Task: inverse folding
């Protein structure tokens, strides 16, 4: 295993050297702030020095963006805040960006040496920036303990002194637990050395530290039972030097107030980081810790240019624009060359010239190089200065097979409740045969699930709910069945099947045997089998519970964080409380590892589910007529029931459905398309005014109803289409890539694909208002024309694509072909990021099933439009 990891990291290093990554995003999002109460207390001292004086005469300066800057070094101080949805997302506290890569984060007071995702984090009370003195100050607290502290950053020559004071001593409950931590990205320090008070050591590729039993188990440990276990420090000292041999990673950390310990967080969890930590002393106030962080600065350092382009390539008739991304201090003149690769290996320049300046976006300057006039099929390379891209193609069929890895591999691998085999490899066994136990009432769970004051069914908390152990897909890199994702994917797959006539057959699915074979045809279109697999889970919910449920998820953090074969997460046997733990009898088990079903009733979920069932009934006809009939029967029955009572409005997190008008509108449209009954047309007309304000989210659904509605309906939609187009164009023009780029805690590839799919649907319905270019820009963004790098965010699509991603494979630093990652995450205020060396950033690298089905739609939409354009190019 270790040799494999070494090889993989060497491969990553070499690839990143050839194709350097860079940042992306928008700068105007305000960081979430807490109370505006006056800052109180004395100060705890923590010094951050960026760059040796010999290499950095001018030192760090507070820039206009609110962080400290020197050549090749940025120090951020609470420019970002912890993600409110999923706890610690490694995007806050004191952070270090060194030569274009964020290598340290979470500089803050924490309650564990190696905190994980679910460990407590301080709450930000306030953050202030004094532009006159350059001081940044943050006040934080752990309200459950009545514990408040202040972290202050003060520039001093070539250093930044981070002072932190305690107004009151550390509470007794936190003595020996609270300490100042700074976490360093493991991938940035693989193959590198460190020194602790002059004693040398090396950063391990795989953790192997001494472990001590403890009375209390760390929630981040990935275990749900057994004793606690904590890693011991790799080294201790007052002065640490990290990677002295590598100027791009050379950092010195010195404490003037006590010892620092170096820990390997991967001893607790595979997504852990290297952690430098000093405990806060007991019984003291004022300055209790002072460190100096000296990050090597390189005068004159410039980030290598990035040539944003589609790794997949271009159709002859479409616009072709490369986006040149430059360091803000890079003023070197350089021309762009487009070269065709000849069979001999020679490169023939087919266009050369200067790129046109677009301007500043976030922290980079951008230029654009238009080569739309080049239409000849072939293999091409772009070059700017010394930077050269990988090869890409111009071809009439460029989009014809771009969706196939998602169809052939990604969706089969994501299938729950079946064994999935690919030649010599078993991706996973028949998982979760013991689904599912009723979740307890009045319970807020992990991953945004919650159960309300009633189960809303005939089962009591802890009861086994029969019939739920069928169908569905793993929602994301984790293994829950999120109903909202399930029905979105079913509708998307049906749309692709009907719109593009997809009949590809490369996967064999045997639901009776619960067995799937990849690369083995079985005579049924793959997309139909995927629709059926999603549908049987949705139908099972209505059969077993009587309504759509929030979802099915692991009962505890230990099981939730499972990596590897999903079939090994549980014993596959229904839990029987009369049996002892580990005892098995009659197909039942005394081990309570069964997943929980969250069943609080939500009309939004009901409408979303029946929209999918109504749509699926059309696709399944001729393949599974009995299931098709059952789908439409359930859909119509539930529609009548929902229309006959006040809506159930239970809501929690992102697991209880979308906005009610939107979900009801979707159900009405799909029922209309399937039945053609006037009552559903009336419902569509009545609901349209309610969804018009959120037209961007419902545009595809709205125009899908046009063929089944009176002509007046199309006329009624036209003003909304025009208004949408104005807003969409404004959002797209705000950056050089021509698509809306989001800046939340989850990167925006899903929003970009929705933009492209809206463009396709609206162009078809209103070609006089909306053009097709948004489709191609969306595809281009997904496949490499985006900030920060030129990598394709669809694994195995394009010459250089995502090869280290956050699926159920993430511990192996690998990928699943056809999976789509969230993409470029904006680290506030202006640093766009996507790591190809560290899969565990879920906001950047986590595959989710709706993005997979959206990619199938978008790639086929581009193929249809490109064929139309190429027909005009002849």
Result:
């Amino acid at each position: 295993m270790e040799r494999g990891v070494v090889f993989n990291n060497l491969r990553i290093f070499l690839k990143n050297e050839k194709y350097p990554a860079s940042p992306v995003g928008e700068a105007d999002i305000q960081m979430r702030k807490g109370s505006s109460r006056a800052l109180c207390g004395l100060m705890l001292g923590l010094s951050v020095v960026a760059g040796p004086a010999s290499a950095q005469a001018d030192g760090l300066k507070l820039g206009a963006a609110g962080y400290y800057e020197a050549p090749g070094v940025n120090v951020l101080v609470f420019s970002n805040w912890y993600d409110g949805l999923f706890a610690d997302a490694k995007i806050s506290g004191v952070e270090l960006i060194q030569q274009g890569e964020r290598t340290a984060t979470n500089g803050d007071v924490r309650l564990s040496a190696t905190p994980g995702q679910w460990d407590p984090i301080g709450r930000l009370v306030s953050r202030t920036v004094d532009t006159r003195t350059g001081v940044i100050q943050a006040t934080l607290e752990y309200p459950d303990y009545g514990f408040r502290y202040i972290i202050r950053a003060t520039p001093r020559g070539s250093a930044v002194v981070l002072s932190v004071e305690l107004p009151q001593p550390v509470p007794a409950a936190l003595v020996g637990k609270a300490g100042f931590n700074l976490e360093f990205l493991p991938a940035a320090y693989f193959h590198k050395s460190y020194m602790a008070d002059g004693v040398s050591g090396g950063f391990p590729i795989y953790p192997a530290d001494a472990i001590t039993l403890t009375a209390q188990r760390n929630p981040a440990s990935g275990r749900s039972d057994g004793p606690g276990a904590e890693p011991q420090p790799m080294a201790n000292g007052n002065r640490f030097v990290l990677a002295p041999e590598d100027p791009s990673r050379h950092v010195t950390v010195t404490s003037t107030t006590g010892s620092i310990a170096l820990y390997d967080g991967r001893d607790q969890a595979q997504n852990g980081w290297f952690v430098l930590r000093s405990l806060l002393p007991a019984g003291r106030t004022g300055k209790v810790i002072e460190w100096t962080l000296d990050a090597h600065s390189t005068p004159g350092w410039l980030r290598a240019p990035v040539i944003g382009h589609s790794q997949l390539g271009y159709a002859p008739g479409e616009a072709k624009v490369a986006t040149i991304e430059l360091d803000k201090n890079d003023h070197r003149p350089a021309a762009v060359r487009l070269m065709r690769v000849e069979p001999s290996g020679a490169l023939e320049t087919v266009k050369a010239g200067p790129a046109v300046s677009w301007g500043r976006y976030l922290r980079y300057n951008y230029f654009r190089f238009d080569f739309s006039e080049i239409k000849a099929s072939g293999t091409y390379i772009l070059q700017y200065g010394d930077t050269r891209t990988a090869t890409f193609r111009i071809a009439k069929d460029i989009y014809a097979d771009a969706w196939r890895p998602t169809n052939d591999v990604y969706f089969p691998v994501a299938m729950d409740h079946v064994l999935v085999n690919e030649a010599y490899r078993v991706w996973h066994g028949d998982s979760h045969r013991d689904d599912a136990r009723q979740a307890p009432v009045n319970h807020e769970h992990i991953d945004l699930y919650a159960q309300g004051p009633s189960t809303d069914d005939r089962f009591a908390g802890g009861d086994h709910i029969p019939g739920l152990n069928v169908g569905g897909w793993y929602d994301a890199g984790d293994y829950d069945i999120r109903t909202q994702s399930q029905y979105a994917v079913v509708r998307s797959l049906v749309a692709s099947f009907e719109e593009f006539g997809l009949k590809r057959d490369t996967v064999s699915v045997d639901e009776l045997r619960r067995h799937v074979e990849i690369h083995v045809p079985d005579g049924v279109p793959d997309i139909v089998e995927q629709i059926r697999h999603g549908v049987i889970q949705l139908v099972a919910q209505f059969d077993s519970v009587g309504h759509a449920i929030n979802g099915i998820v692991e009962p505890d953090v230990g099981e939730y964080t499972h990596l590897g074969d999903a079939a090994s997460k549980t014993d596959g046997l229904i839990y029987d409380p009369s049996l002892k733990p580990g005892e098995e009898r009659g197909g039942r088990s005394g081990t309570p590892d069964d997943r929980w079903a969250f069943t609080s009733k939500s009309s939004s979920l009901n409408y979303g589910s029946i929209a999918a069932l109504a749509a699926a009934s059309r696709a399944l006809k001729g393949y599974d007529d009995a299931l098709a009939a059952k789908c439409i029967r359930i859909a119509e029955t539930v529609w009548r029931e929902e229309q006959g009572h006040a809506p159930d409005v239970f809501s929690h997190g992102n697991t209880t459905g979308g906005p009610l008008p939107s979900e009801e509108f979707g159900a009405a449209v799909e029922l209309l398309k399937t039945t053609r009954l006037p009552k559903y047309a009336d419902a569509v007309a009545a609901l349209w005014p309610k969804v018009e304000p959120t037209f961007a989210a419902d545009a595809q659904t709205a125009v899908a109803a046009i063929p089944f509605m009176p002509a007046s309906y199309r006329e009624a939609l036209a003003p909304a289409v025009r208004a949408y187009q104005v807003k969409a164009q404004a959002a797209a023009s705000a950056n050089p890539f021509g698509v809306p780029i989001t800046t939340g805690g989850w990167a925006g590839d899903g929003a970009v694909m929705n933009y492209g799919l809206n463009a396709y649907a609206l162009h078809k319905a209103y070609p006089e208002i909306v053009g097709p270019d948004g489709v191609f820009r969306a595809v281009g963004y997904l496949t490499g024309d985006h900030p920060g790098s030129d990598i394709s965010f669809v694994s195995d699509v394009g010459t250089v694509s995502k090869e280290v991603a956050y699926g159920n494979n993430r511990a192996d630093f690998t990928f699943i072909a056809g999976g789509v990652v969230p993409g470029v995450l904006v680290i506030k205020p202006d640093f766009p990021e996507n790591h190809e060396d560290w899969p565990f950033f879920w906001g950047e690298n986590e595959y989710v099933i709706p993005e997979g089905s959206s990619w199938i739609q978008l790639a086929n939409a581009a193929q249809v439009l490109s064929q139309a354009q190429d027909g005009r190019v002849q």
User: Anything to note?
Assistant: Residues 1-57 have pLDDT under 50 and may be disordered. The two ends are 54 Å apart (CA to CA). Residues 81 and 92 are 5 Å apart (CA to CA).
